[in-house]
C-alpha cells in the first residue's frame, strides 16, 4: 500500500479499519523510525475536521516523537497542546493521555506541557465530561512529575 492509501484509510469512513491502522502505525513507530519520514503528513491530520482523525494523528505523532531528531515536533508543540482543550472532549482526553509519553521523549517540553495542563479551561465541556478530563489531566501531571523525579 502506498502512503496515500494509508492516509485515505486513516481519514476514511471505515472507523474500525482506520483505528486499527492507526494503532498498527503507532505500535510500529514505538519500535522503529519507519514512519517518521511521514511525520509532516501525520501532523497535517491534527487539524482535520473529524475528531476521530485528530485522535489518530495524536496517537501516531506521539509514537513518533522519540525519533524526532530534526525538531519537527518542536514546531508542532503549540498546535498539539491546543488539543488539550479540543472542541471534542474525547480528543482532549486522547491528547492529555499522550502527553506523558511526549514528556518522556522530549523532557525539555515538560514546563510547556505542565502549563498547558494546569491552565486548561474545561468550562466548554458538558458537566458530565469535565470531571473525566480533569481526572486525565491530574493523572498526566502525576506521570510527568514522576518522570522529572527519576533523575533526582
Write the SSE topology.
Blueprint: H1 3-11, H2 15-31, H3 39-44, H4 51-64, H5 72-82, H6 89-105, H7 110-118, H8 130-150
Helix pairs in contact: 1-2, 2-4, 4-6, 6-8, 7-8
Protein described:
With 152 residues, this protein is mainly alpha-helical. It has one domain: Leucine-rich Repeat Variant (Alpha Horseshoe), CATH 1.25.10.10. Helices cover 68% and strands 0% of the residues. Helix 1 packs across helix 2, helix 6 runs parallel beside helix 8 and helix 7 packs antiparallel against helix 8. The N and C termini lie far apart (46 Å).
Low-confidence stretches: none
Global morphology: globular
Radius of gyration: 15 Å
- Give a quick account of the main beta sheet: strands, pairing sense, barrel closure: none
Return the structural class: mainly alpha
What is the CATH topology classification name? Leucine-rich Repeat Variant
Intertermini distance? 46 Å
What is the count of DSSP helices, taking H or I runs of 4+ residues? 8
Q: In the CATH hierarchy, what is the architecture at level 2?
A: Alpha Horseshoe
The H-level CATH homologous superfamily, spelled out, is Leucine-rich Repeat Variant
CATH class designation: Mainly Alpha
Query: Could you report the average pLDDT, rounded to the nearest whole number?
Result: 95
- The arrangement of helices and strands along the chain is HHHHHHHH
Amino acid at each position: 500500500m502506498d502512503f496515500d492509501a494509508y492516509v485515505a484509510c486513516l481519514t476514511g469512513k471505515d472507523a474500525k479499519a482506520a483505528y486499527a491502522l492507526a494503532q498498527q502505525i503507532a505500535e510500529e513507530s514505538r519500535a522503529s523510525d519507519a514512519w517518521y519520514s511521514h511525520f509532516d503528513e501525520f501532523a497535517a491530520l491534527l487539524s482535520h475536521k473529524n475528531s476521530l482523525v485528530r485522535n489518530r494523528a495524536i496517537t501516531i505523532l506521539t509514537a513518533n516523537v522519540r525519533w524526532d531528531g530534526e525538531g519537527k515536533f518542536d514546531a508542532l508543540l503549540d498546535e498539539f497542546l491546543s488539543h488539550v482543550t479540543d472542541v471534542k472532549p474525547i480528543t482532549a482526553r486522547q491528547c492529555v493521555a499522550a502527553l506523558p509519553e511526549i514528556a518522556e521523549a522530549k523532557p525539555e517540553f515538560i514546563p510547556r506541557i505542565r502549563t498547558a495542563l494546569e491552565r486548561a479551561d474545561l468550562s466548554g465541556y458538558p458537566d458530565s465530561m469535565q470531571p473525566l478530563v480533569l481526572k486525565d489531566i491530574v493523572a498526566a501531571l502525576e506521570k510527568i512529575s514522576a518522570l522529572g523525579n527519576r533523575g533526582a
